[in-house]
């Protein structure tokens, strides 16, 4: 099964304008991410999908494959669906452009999960939540899983809610997981995605994966302890510089 990793990269960002071109360790953030995207053993090809000519030029000049997409895509998945149209890849991995430290072993683990007999439509990753502050932070997406490690629901709220116990005891139940922004899709699912209407759950939570769940698609989850820093704000970039120095 051929596997392509697509890195969606938008120039517009409410919290951090032009962050894809912000320097990290002397290189634009997007270039750091693309170099990391080439490390998983189970990925055959890496493609950057962007809506911006500046990002296109930077990636192209660095010698990596990149394509221009429409500017009006409502989500990264929609951008990826356009980018892989006409390719022969059977499995597509979504690696966020602001995740320059993603562990290649986690990507390989996700690809292997997509190869299993139940053949999920999508795959994603999660990690245990370890603090009450993290649990209550709406910027951190939570996921609830079933017995087969398939996603039941994603939310910015605290889910599940322990009705009869105080919040300080909740973490001890080992049922709280943070969703990581890593996805894998079957090509057939991405083709179907193009015609899927948005759903009220997706719109109110601002979580594109809820569109898939609401329309009956299966999302398999892998669990990992790895939680490398992503970059959403200028402060995150400063912390990323410190992380980079400590891991090189």
Short description, anyone?
This protein has 248 residues and is of the alpha/beta class.
Give descriptors for this structure:
248 residues, alpha/beta, Spore Coat Polysaccharide Biosynthesis Protein SpsA, Chain A, nine-stranded mixed sheet, two-stranded antiparallel ribbon, 9 helices, 11 strands, 30% helix, 23% strand
Number of domains: 1
Name given to the CATH architecture: Alpha-Beta Complex
Query: Count of DSSP E strands?
Result: 11
Low-confidence stretches: none
User: Biggest β-sheet: count, sense, barrel?
Assistant: 9 strands, mixed
The H/E string reads: EEEHEHEHEHEHEEEHHHEH
Count of discrete alpha- or pi-helical segments spanning 4 or more residues: 9
Distance between the termini: 33 Å
CATH fold annotation: Spore Coat Polysaccharide Biosynthesis Protein SpsA, Chain A
Structural class: alpha/beta
What does this structure look like?
The chain has one domain (about 5-125, about 180-245): Spore Coat Polysaccharide Biosynthesis Protein SpsA, Chain A (Alpha-Beta Complex). The protein is about 30% helix and about 25% strand. It has helices spanning about 30-35, 55-60, 75-85, 105-115, 130-135, 185-195, 200-205, 210-215, 235-245, and strands spanning about 5-10, 25, 25-30, 45-50, 65-70, 90-95, 120-130, 140-145, 150-155, 175-185, 220-225. The strands form 2 sheets. Strands 1, 4, 5, 6, 7, 8, 9, 10 and 11 form a 9-stranded mixed β-sheet that branches. A two-stranded antiparallel sheet has the order 2-3. Helix 2 (about 55-60) links the parallel strand 4 (about 45-50) and strand 5 (about 65-70). The longest helix has 13 residues, at about 235-245.
């Amino acid at each position: 099964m051929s596997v392509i990793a697509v890195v969606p990269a938008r120039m517009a960002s409410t919290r951090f304008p032009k962050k894809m071109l912000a320097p990290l360790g002397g290189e634009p953030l997007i270039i750091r991410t693309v170099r990391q995207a080439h490390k998983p053993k189970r990925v055959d090809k890496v493609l950057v999908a962007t809506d911006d000519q500046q990002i296109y030029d930077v990636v192209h000049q660095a010698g990596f494959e990149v394509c221009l997409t429409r500017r009006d895509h409502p989500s990264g998945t929609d951008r990826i669906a356009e980018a892989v149209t006409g390719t022969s890849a059977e499995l597509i991995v979504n690696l966020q452009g602001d995740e320059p430290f993603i562990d290649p072993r986690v990507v390989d683990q996700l690809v292997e999960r997509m190869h299993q007999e139940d053949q999920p439509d999508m795959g994603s990753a999660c990690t245990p939540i370890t603090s009450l502050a993290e649990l209550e932070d709406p910027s951190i997406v939570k996921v609830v899983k079933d017995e087969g490690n398939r996603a039941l629901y994603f939310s910015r709220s605290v889910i599940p809610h322990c009705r009869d116990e105080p919040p300080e005891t909740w973490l001890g139940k080992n049922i709280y997981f943070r969703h990581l922004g890593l996805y894998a899709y079957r090509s057939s699912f991405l083709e179907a995605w193009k015609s899927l209407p948005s759903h009220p759950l997706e719109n109110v939570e601002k979580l594109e994966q809820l569109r898939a769940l609401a329309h009956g698609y299966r999302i398999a989850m892998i669990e990992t302890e790895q939680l490398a820093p992503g970059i959403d704000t200028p402060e995150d970039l400063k912390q990323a510089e410190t992380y980079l120095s400590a891991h090189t």
